[in-house]
Input
Amino acid sequence: MDREDVEPVCRVYENLARLQENCYAEPMATHLQAMKAPGYENGFALTLLPHRLHDTLKRKRPTMYFVNSMSDLFHESVPFDYIDQVFETIERTPSHTYQILTKRVDRLEAYFMDKSAPRNAWIGVSVEDRKYGVPRIHHLRRVDAAVRFLLIEPLLSDVGTLDLRGIYIGSS
Output
């Protein structure tokens, strides 16, 4: 499946550049803001868009959505009650699949401490290097999810041999 085949369901913008140098998202958001693209009115500033949460309820054809296009649902400024709304929408649309990607594993783990991810929610972490990325895999394993995945990009350095037990290995 090409990235173009995966549709965003909600954008929760934030400054990923704080986590990673040379992040593509901030200049892209600035460009989209200049083009007056809907949803980018605030550029790269954190913006919750709850009105988009129910867009997936209208689609009848099973679709895979990438929830975190240039964002992180588990950003510290996104309240857990908003994240609850995202997962309530996911539960209401079992024919769709939602990919949720984060670098903020502490919040991910805290959120799922006493709950499971819906079966149609794929939960993943970014792995860009050994120092920050590889340790996220251990935290991901602690989340009760039917599908756990890794996004190994941008690969900034050798990540070594990875222990992939409990991680979905698939191809598009």
User: Anything to note?
Assistant: Residues 80-92 form the longest helix (13 residues). The beta strands are 64-66, 97-102, 121-126, 147-151. The radius of gyration is 16 Å.
